[in-house]
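User: Is it possible to get a 3D structure for a protein together with its bound compound? The compound here is zinc ion. I've pasted both below.
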Amino acid sequence: MQKGYPSLDEIHDRVDDFVASNGRIARLIPTAPSEEGRRVPAVAITDPRTPDDDKEVALVVCGRHGNELGTRTVGLEMLGFLAGEAAALIRGRLNVVVVPVANPDGCVRAQFHAPSDGLSPTEIAALVPLAHSLQPDAVVDIHSLGQSDIEAVITANTSPGGIDDRVHNALAERMCEAACREGFCFTVESVAGGGYNNFFAGWCYDEFHSTVFGMEVNHAALSPGQAGASGRAAVVGLLVEGTKTFTGERYPGFPNRVVAGDEGFAVRASGETAAARRASRASLWRAARGRGSVKRRFEDGVVVCSAAVPVDEPLEAALSCRVRVAARRIAGVTLSGSEVKWEAVERPCQTDVFVDTALEGDGIVEMRITLSNSK
Ligand SMILES: [Zn+2]
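Assistant: Yes, that's possible. Here is the predicted structure of the complex:
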């Protein structure tokens, strides 16, 4: 094995030391053991002064493949960063959960030791329940290349519907830029259909509509310290975006709330808190994926948006529509014929109009936005 990479026992010792000496911000989340009975520690790091319900949740999973040595230092490096002063904003706005070794049975063998066609028994036992409890807003699944000098952010696992490709590509660029500022060069790759072994991230996307990335650090061209620092730099680039409000969004956090439609008109998650929006997103996504349809047209100064998202039980949702004018030129907004309260987020080129509603049955709604002629 390449020199300088920690063994499973060393990683677990350092994780335990970290939690013991950072008790104010760090705790271990109980997880089921691996197929062969080894621990799979998951460490949550967050500022307890902000209520958990007001925070986005990010899940960083390292070491699905036991021979990918570069992953062994990324999780430890993440923990060190997240406890430091530079992570104060992230701790205040996010709950970050780090799994330093997702495949301990492969780690002790220094072998791949995972199925190449789906989740492993260890992932199903330890990580799937963890993800169900977190409903993560963002997930990064970290791998490491040993046969080349490439590092990559992987945008596979999303669908071309909605705004997901656009969002994931934009965030991937920011991750690369963050790593570049520290001297680490990542490419952005979409290897959908190309055999990329990134099932956990894909599963989280399918289940919760999480913002998901795969990542390849590198243990051929980089030292253990560099491999850890490079992965940390790129992941932190993503976490920082989760503290901001993305273009066209009404709330801060990861821009994963559109479950049907696009920038012009969308059905999206709603809720006053991050936790409420997270639950709304997962429920709506399960209902809408592949079944929801939206239409938008413009006639005689009125933007008419209609959606049909069939639901098995009533679900809170929000509608968003982009208009080409400033908010002061919006004369009124109706939903199924009745005037409704609306909220506007303006930018120089347009205004995004948001309306809260509830979907029932066939989930048919029609929103009409009347624009005034006055300047
Ligand atoms: Zn891998």
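The radius of gyration is 22 Å. Residues 224-242 form the longest helix (19 residues).
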